[in-house]
Specification:
It is a single chain. The relative contact order is 0.16. This protein is globular. By secondary structure, it is α+β, with helices and mostly antiparallel strands. It contains 4 helices and 8 strands, in the order αβαβαββββββα. It starts with 18 loop residues before the first helix and ends in an 18-residue tail after the last helix. The strands form 2 sheets. The chain has a 6-stranded antiparallel beta sheet. It has a two-stranded antiparallel sheet with strand order 1-2. The longest helix has 22 residues.
């Protein structure tokens, strides 16, 4: 008989588990809602459609369909209350106008009791607009914003925001919004082109929502619909 120790049913969302929590888990906490015991789920646990994630104004209908391509699911754990574009915009406005570390906008999780899948959606400020240097081979460059790079497990949209809400130099601030499959590195499975398009569509949706929230001039040069043709 093999002994199975379950440490966690979800990746840690913020920081590391404390030693005490880890000890408790190792001593036998193994249930996380996938065994039919409804009492193991928090009372406020909710499962929502893709368009309701991250505050309800960040994921377009196209992006919700793209999330299904990426995760295989059309339903997701409800986002944390402050995991919204509005909060991310406030954090950006309050930040230094120089380059910053990568910050979370939102995390997307498939529901408990289904195969684990986590996406991390982030923003950061960059010192400059993208250069003409070639991207890594895994990426396809797309015609959105200053530059959009799409791979089969991530995508990044670079755009410039000029706005009275964002104190900056006359040429605006350079923003990068990213969507990544948050997991151990491995080769993506499935239709690579479809996955690249799906990640680019989700990244575009969050980028456009951020540009609108910040009142960026001409939405930072972003199109209203994702453009998936290679640059």
């Amino acid at each position: 008989m093999r002994m199975r120790t379950v440490i966690s049913c979800r990746p840690a969302r913020k920081g590391l588990l404390s030693a005490g929590v880890v000890g408790s888990l190792l001593l036998g906490i193994t249930g996380c809602g996938g065994d039919g015991d409804g009492d193991s789920l928090p009372k406020d646990y909710k499962v929502v459609a893709g368009t309701q994630l991250c505050g309800g104004d960040a994921v377009s209908a196209d992006a919700a369909k793209a999330l299904k391509v990426i995760t295989g699911s059309s339903r997701f754990e409800a986002s944390e209350e402050k995991a919204t574009i509005g909060q991310a915009a406030e954090d950006l406005i309050a930040s230094s106008p120089s380059a910053t570390r990568t910050e979370d906008i939102c995390r997307v999780f498939t529901p408990k009791g289904t195969p684990d899948f986590q996406l991390r959606v982030t923003w950061r400020l960059a010192d400059d607009a993208p250069t003409d240097d070639p991207a890594a081979p895994k990426f396809t460059a797309l015609k959105m914003g200053d530059e959009t790079l799409a791979a089969a497990d991530m995508a990044y949209v670079y755009f410039t925001c000029r706005s009275d809400k964002v104190p900056s130099a006359s040429d605006g601030v350079h923003l990068v919004v990213g969507v990544e499959h948050w997991a151990m590195p491995r080769e993506p499975e499935g239709n690579i082109k479809a996955l690249k398009n799906a990640y680019a569509t989700v990244a575009h949706s969050f980028s456009l929502a951020m540009a609108r929230e910040l009142r960026c001039d001409k939405n930072g040069g972003l199109p209203t619909k994702p453009v998936l043709e290679p640059a």
